[in-house]
Amino acid sequence: MKTKKGYLSRTVNELKPSGIRRFFDLASGMEGVVSLGVGEPDFVTPWTVREAAILSLEEGYTSYTANAGLLELREEIATYLTKNFNVTYNPKSEIIVTVGASQAIDIALRSILDPDDEVLVVEPCFVSYSPLVSLAGGTPIPVQAEADGFKISPDKLRAAITPKTKAIMICSPNNPTGTMLNRKELEEIAAIAKESDLLVISDEIYAELVYDESYTSMAAIEGMKDRTILISGFSKGFAMTGWRLGFVCAPEELSQAMLKVHQYAMMCAPTMAQYAGLEALKNGNDEVDEMRKSYRRRRNYMVSSFNELGLECHSPGGAFYVFPSIKSTGLTSDQFAEQLLIEEKVAVVPGNVFGESGEGYVRCSYAASIEQLQEAIKRIRRFLKNHQK
Amino acid sequence: MQLTDKELEIVEILEKDSRTSNEDLAAMTSLTVSETEEVLKKLEDQKIIVRYTSIVDWSKISGHEGVTAMIDVKVTPKRGVGFDEIAKRIYRFKEVKSVYLMSGAYDLSVIIEGQSMNEVARFVSQKLSTLDSVISTTTHFILKKYKHDGTIFEPDEEDKRIVVSP
Ligand SMILES: Cc1ncc(COP(=O)(O)O)c(C=O)c1O
């Protein structure tokens, strides 16, 4: 059925389907695939967390919570942020519990954007940022990170700013590059935000998973709490992707605006997941430590293996991705990923789906058992041998 | 004894999987293979890593199912040597898999493996309870091992994730 005018919104019509989708379709039908294409932990949620959720169901906590989420959970989030990242938010007015970091990003953008407002989106980045900016009526302006380690060049950021620019979106540690920004690099971005009076939307969902240096939050940079929207959640650090639980923190005025959008569009995050999140913050830390250690070992293994195979790979400070360059093969990211999948049944994600500067790279998730990583490396070695020029 | 972070890391990896190759250990800890070998030698020399073993599920091997019993043993400690002497007399028997000194209602916890309940019963009545300082024993037979030394015997290892995701 089709109306004469066409019934799809122009914005939605113009959104490109995610490049990840194609690889999902390709890989899904195959047997015996070793997947390095998964953007979520290979750990199951810690049992203590699952058990707390079951208990909440048994006790009948099955109704709505406050729009902003259980106060007890917001208080626990506030304590957690202060203790781990040295940032202070008032649980009563500056924290909203959301349906994943995904929804947090959505309500942040919808709360700040007017038609044609521009948002600088540092690429390569998580595939949702630009589409969510568009859906909120804004215009995403991609700014490419530097190929050498995928840090952000302050000059490039400055050059992209126009009178319509409203915010900069960053993600550290980053999906897909794993790159973590240190204090100095954050300060450079902060200086730009201050001089041009911009907000920073800081996606810190991987903050728990850092392996070399301690983590610095954008909101902890001097003078930045006032212009930062801090996005985070439970999916990655606590291995809780399927629960759909995240949160967003911002100064009161911004938070109250986001709460309006959240209240009308979502009501509240799932109650069972909120009880699970509470338990995760109270008693999940030991398991997070274990997972972090395990990821660190696998990161070291992957970085060393790729470099040994001749696919240059920087050692990322966080998340669970490595982003090796495949330029030496003479293949494009898409060709490499597709041929590797078909010939050796190893799924990776071509870097270009995360932005133009991801071309020439592939994202390999090491959220897989060490045996699987070993098998993947073995197959990639064989693939490279067969493709030697 | 104080270990460096990397030494500790190696201990932890091997405790989970003692078959991890030196090359993989090196890659996982960002050491060279020869540095890794040095660490291993040190850990072995110091008896920090005492032995490399496997966890076996004997219940799967016909004719070798065997039985395991945990025995609470009350003893009278001896002047001068405390519990150590009686512990030694007990742990030297090859049937004895573990001996722990416990706090609480009894003194030694002894784990015994044998071919049959009869064999274990015979050991307890003839060897263990006849030792001079042993006052009493209480034997518990293990009916099924679900988890042993941190390892679940029948884990659910199915990967429930979709193959490619953002
Ligand atoms: C950078 C980044 N932000 C946000 C998300 C979404 O997380 P959530 O599950 O909390 O919606 C992801 C998930 O892949 C991510 O990689």
Please give a structural write-up.
The complex is a heterodimer of chains A (389) and B (166). Chain A has 389 residues and is an alpha/beta fold. Chain A has 2 domains: 10-45 and 286-386, Aspartate Aminotransferase, domain 1; 47-284, Aspartate Aminotransferase, domain 2, CATH 3.40.640.10. Chain A has helices at 10-14, 19-28, 47-58, 71-85, 100-112, 129-135, 154-160, 183-195, 252-265, 271-283, 285-309, 333-344, 370-386; strands spanning 34-35, 95-98, 118-123, 139-144, 165-171, 199-203, 228-233, 246-249, 321-322, 346-347, 349-350, 362-365. In chain A, the strands form 3 sheets. Chain A has a 7-stranded mixed beta sheet, sandwiched between helices. In chain A, helix 6 links the parallel strand 3 (118-123) and strand 4 (139-144). The relative contact order of chain A is 0.17. In chain B, 32% of the residues lie in helices and 20% in strands. Chain B contains 5 helices and 6 strands; from the N terminus they run H-H-H-E-H-E-E-H-E-E-E. Chain B has helices at 5-16, 22-29, 33-45, 84-91, 117-128, and strands at residues 67-75, 96-101, 108-114, 134-141, 147-148, 151-152. Chain B has a 4-stranded antiparallel beta sheet. Chain B has a two-stranded antiparallel ribbon with strand order 5-6. Classes of the chains: A alpha/beta (389), B alpha+beta (166). The interface between A and B is medium-sized, with 28 and 15 residues. Pyridoxal-5'-phosphate (PLP) is lined by residues 39, 100-102, 126, 171, 175, 203, 205, 233, 235, 241, 246 of chain A.
The N- to C-terminal Cα distance of chain B equals 45 Å
Task: Provide the CATH superfamily of the largest domain in chain A.
Answer: Type I PLP-dependent aspartate aminotransferase-like (Major domain)
Helix count of chain B, per DSSP?
5
Strand arrangement, major sheet of chain B? 2-3-1-4
CATH class of the largest domain in chain B: Alpha Beta
**Percentage of β-strand residues of chain A:** 5-15%
Q: Kindly provide the name of the CATH class of the largest domain in chain A.
A: Alpha Beta
Which CATH-level-2 architecture of the largest domain in chain B?
2-Layer Sandwich
Cα radius of gyration of chain B in angstroms: 21 Å
Assembly classification: heterodimer
Q: CATH H-level name of the largest domain in chain B... which superfamily?
A: Lrp/AsnC effector binding domain/regulation of amino acid metabolism (RAM) domain
CATH architecture label name of the largest domain in chain A? 3-Layer(aba) Sandwich
Roughly how much helix do the residues of chain B carry, as a percent range? 25-40%
